[in-house]
Each structure stands twice: as structure tokens, then as C-alpha cells.
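Proteins fold reproducibly. Next comes a concrete instance:

***
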Amino acid sequence: MLPLCFVSSKTQRDRRQFIRHRVTLAKIRTEVRNRVHALLDKHELKCPYKTLFSGSGVNWLMGLKLGTREKSWKNLGKTVPSRLWGSGLIL
């Protein structure tokens, strides 16, 4: 006879899945922020606002013109679903 084992409830499994997904989103957010900072450093740009990822900082970013490879900051967002940009999860 096989020994009994613990099986999580459906609620507990759903919560764990939610937390795994949330951790993944946090990693994506960090990656995008690091890429933005790297591009700013590459182009020797400094944000005039206290917080780069505030509303005014993001507006400043969107208004910047970059070199040939990075035509706009909006291209950076194409690696992440657009619903994350507007939801506050990325910014």
C-alpha cells in the first residue's frame, strides 16, 4: 500500500499560481526599468524629474528622440504587453 500524501486545495493552488505570476511580472518590470536606465546612460541623458517612472518622467521619456536603432521609447514597450504599461505594473 502506498503512503498518503498531501494534496493542496484548489484555493491554495490558485493562490500559488497567482503569486508565481506576480513574481514574473515584477521581474519583467525590473528588466524594463533596467533597460530604460541603460539606454539613458548610453545616450548620456538625465531625467529632469525626481522620479523617472512617474507620470511626468514617462511623458519626458516618450518625448525623447533616440538614434537609428532605438527610434522611440515606445519600441522598448513592445517587448512587454501594452496592458502592463498602462496598468501601473511596469511603471
